[in-house]
From TrEMBL, chain A:
Alphabetical list of InterPro entries matching this protein: DUF6691
UniProt keyword terms in alphabetical order: Membrane, Transmembrane, Transmembrane helix
Protein's UniProt name: Uncharacterized protein
Pfam families, sorted: DUF6691 (PF20398)
Transmembrane parts of this sequence: 30-50, 62-81, 106-128, 134-152
TrEMBL record, chain B:
UniProt main location, coarse: membrane
Compartments it resides in: Cell inner membrane
Gene Ontology CC: plasma membrane
Organism superkingdom: Bacteria
Membrane topology: Multi-pass membrane protein
Protein name: Uncharacterized protein
Signal peptide: none
Keywords for the protein's UniProt record, in alphabetical order: Cell inner membrane, Cell membrane, Membrane, Transmembrane, Transmembrane helix, Transport
Entry's family note: Belongs to the TsuA/YedE (TC 9.B.102) family.
Length: 160, 193
């Protein structure tokens, strides 16, 4: 069997390690989780262009507090899952794929940072901004999809 | 009860929002053995709609439908929070940021997003080209090149103590600081602010 490097790359960002397939109603739990997430994004004003400007101007602790406490909560949760050997509800062992270092994390990370400060949004808040009635952000989202596509098209020609 | 409703409509502080976002990490792992990440949804859209025989988009995107359902939920959540739980007061912006942005030509500080930039009127203008088209492109291209965004690297990656995600996060911040502190002012001048 051919080893497709793109398949392994697919586990780079938000991989699905579950072996049991999920369709239809099984996906509703992700919808609910997404809704809760979107509500937090708006209620804590994380989707605000102004909050991102404050962050990059070091004028407010808010975004640093949000990201920092999210990371601390994440670290504690993952340590608990590992130490208590908690399984997923499907009874599978929980897998967190390893992220390999690539130069893209430097170049791509830098490029994303430039865009983050212009749009005031990382990909998650883009969706929440649209839901909040800033419908013109649909254009930003389409352009982000185009950017992803262009990366995919030239990925083997870029330093990585 | 009224107090609870009042609390819901106030802006939530970082120490409420941050842990709730952090809990998404174990929630996704336990519910479905899935790693948290959002920018991957953009790739799935490409794979689903415009794969164009590009190897990078040849994979089983059907297995990743959960990710698209999740981001659709984020959109719906944004709608619910804005139209049913919204803060009746104007957003409170740090005085220094407000002064700096006013100097750059921003006049509307009432909502979450300045209408000087984020309105349909700007769509076919230089402002729209920079803030929607260029900005969006950099976000989509950069996150995919980096293999993740704030959720996949800064939150999920660092939470699982993976140093490549720390590197990515540092460069997200470097890019953001450079754009805000150096390029934003001339860029805004250029597009007519």
């Amino acid at each position: 069997m051919k080893v497709d490097r793109n398949i392994s790359e697919a586990v780079c960002d938000a991989p699905n390690s579950q072996e049991t397939g999920e369709k239809g109603m099984a996906l509703v739990k992700y919808l609910i989780l997404g809704i809760l997430f979107g509500i937090v994004f708006v209620k804590a004003e994380i989707i605000s262009w102004f909050r991102i400007q404050e962050m990059f101007r070091l004028d407010s602790f808010h975004m640093y507090g949000v990201i920092g406490s999210a990371i601390v909560t994440g670290i504690i949760s993952i340590q608990l899952i590992k130490r208590l050997k908690i399984k997923s509800i499907a009874g599978e062992e929980i897998i967190i794929p390893k992220k390999e270092f690539r130069k893209g994390q430097i170049y791509g990370g830098f490029v994303f940072g430039l865009g983050w400060a212009i749009t005031g949004a990382c990909p998650g808040p883009l969706f929440a901004q649209i839901g909040s009635g800033f419908t013109v952000v649909i254009v930003t989202l389409l352009s982000a999809i185009a950017g992803t596509w262009v990366y995919g098209k030239f990925s083997d020609k870029l330093p990585n | 009860m009224n107090q609870f409703i009042d609390w819901l409509s106030q802006p939530w502080p970082w120490y409420v929002a941050g842990p709730m976002i952090g809990l998404t990490v174990p929630a996704l792992l336990i519910l479905g053995n899935k790693s948290f990440g959002i920018s991957s949804s953009l790739r799935h859209v490409c794979a689903m709609c415009i794969p164009a025989k590009i190897p990078f988009f040849q994979y089983n995107w059907r297995k990743e439908m959960w990710n698209l359902v999740f981001v659709f939920g984020v959109l719906v959540g944004g709608f619910i929070a804005t139209f049913f739980m919204s803060n009746p007061d104007e957003i409170v912006i740090a005085a220094q940021t407000q002064a700096d942005l006013a100097a750059l030509g921003i006049t509307d500080f009432s909502g979450l997003m300045p209408s000087d930039i984020f309105s349909w009127e700007n769509i076919f203008t230089a402002k729209g080209l920079v803030f929607f088209v260029l900005g969006g492109f950099l976000v989509g291209f950069g996150t995919r090149y980096a293999g993740g965004c704030t959720s996949g690297h800064a939150i999920m990656g660092i939470s699982s103590l993976q140093w490549p995600s720390m590197v990515a996060t540092i460069f997200f911040m470097v890019g953001g600081f450079l754009m805000t502190q150096v390029f934003l002012a001339p860029l805004m001048k250029l597009v007519g602010f």
